[in-house]
Recover the amino acids of this structure.
């Protein structure tokens, strides 16, 4: 939703430069692009998280109310985060047709996980940092570029990470009324956690799969485009049939118990260790899903792991 609004705003701005290139184009847009491409790349460093913004920016406040977003924190996570140097990899499912909710919850972490919120970053697609204003808003909400070197640096500096491992494949395959996630082949987040000796927290967002009515139109072609060009085209209808806003589906983001891997030793994990840890994570996520689904009104759903 936020991205759609801001991209629209930027399109208007660029359209404006066609008529007055000497003013906006030359003195504003060009220097801005030079600055963000050559000089300033906080998205590849520690980010630019801004607490007051992620808590109070009106679009976020409205979206939070509209979706009735609430976080449920497992008590052992609440205890663990209060310790000195606490650090986690939050692996969040599902991505949904639009993952705005994952940045929206950033501001809520200051209340729910107060000890680590200021040192938590969300990994998001590089493209967001190439669009003016989407870039700033993403940075202020605590997002950074989802590159391996960025993730490594943050974990080394005792930051926690929010990761949506399903990524764009899961986004395209989102199916209204079903809980489909793409996890079987997603192991990068496990390797990262093992390498740095950081516990992984399974997180499941109930409601997100139903934000939009989805379509499987030209699915093969869209998956091909994604694989070849890294371009994802979700076909989804939210409020009033548009992609601008999700349907008002009550959302509960459930944070499970941190998983401390018994084979955990910082360094380079072997493929077998990654395999085992991945299986443990999958089990933890399924448990989390099964534990909460009935109380949250999704008792008839099964978690489909692809
Ligand atoms: C926290 O996690 C443990 C282990 O999965 C579970 O037994 C417990 O019920 C959870 N607590 C809540 C409030 O969900
Ligand atoms: C991170 O934590 C480790 C041990 O827990 C400590 O040695 C190191 O100084 C910490 N680094 C920062 C930047 O706080």
């Amino acid at each position: 939703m936020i991205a759609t609004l801001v991209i629209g705003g930027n399109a208007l701005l660029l359209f404006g430069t066609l008529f007055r290139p000497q003013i906006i184009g030359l003195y504003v847009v060009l220097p801005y692009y030079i600055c963000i491409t050559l000089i300033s790349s906080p998205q590849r460093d520690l980010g630019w998280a801004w607490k007051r913004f992620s808590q109070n920016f009106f679009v976020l406040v409205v979206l939070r109310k509209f979706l009735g977003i609430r976080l449920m924190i497992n008590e052992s996570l609440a205890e663990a985060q209060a310790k000195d140097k606490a650090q986690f990899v939050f692996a969040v499912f599902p991505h949904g047709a639009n993952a705005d909710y994952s940045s929206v919850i950033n501001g809520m972490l200051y209340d729910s996980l107060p000890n680590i919120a200021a040192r938590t970053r969300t990994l998001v697609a590089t493209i967001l940092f190439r669009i003016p204003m989407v870039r700033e808003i993403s940075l202020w909400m605590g997002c950074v570029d989802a590159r391996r070197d960025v993730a490594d640096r943050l974990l080394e500096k005792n930051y926690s990470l929010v990761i949506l491992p399903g990524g764009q494949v899961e986004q395209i395959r989102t199916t209204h009324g079903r809980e489909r996630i793409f996890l079987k082949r997603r192991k990068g987040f496990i390797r990262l956690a093992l390498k740095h000796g950081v516990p992984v927290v399974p997180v499941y967002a109930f409601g997100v799969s139903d934000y939009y009515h989805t379509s499987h139109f030209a699915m093969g072609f869209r998956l091909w485009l994604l694989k070849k060009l890294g371009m994802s085209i979700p076909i989804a209808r939210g409020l009033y049939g548009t992609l601008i806003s999700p349907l008002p589906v009550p959302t509960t983001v459930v944070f499970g118990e941190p998983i401390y891997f018994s084979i955990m030793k910082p360094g380079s994990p072997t493929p077998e260790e990654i395999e085992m840890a991945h299986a443990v994570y999958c089990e933890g996520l399924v448990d989390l899903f099964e534990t909460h689904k009935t109380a949250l009104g999704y008792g008839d759903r099964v978690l489909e792991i692809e």
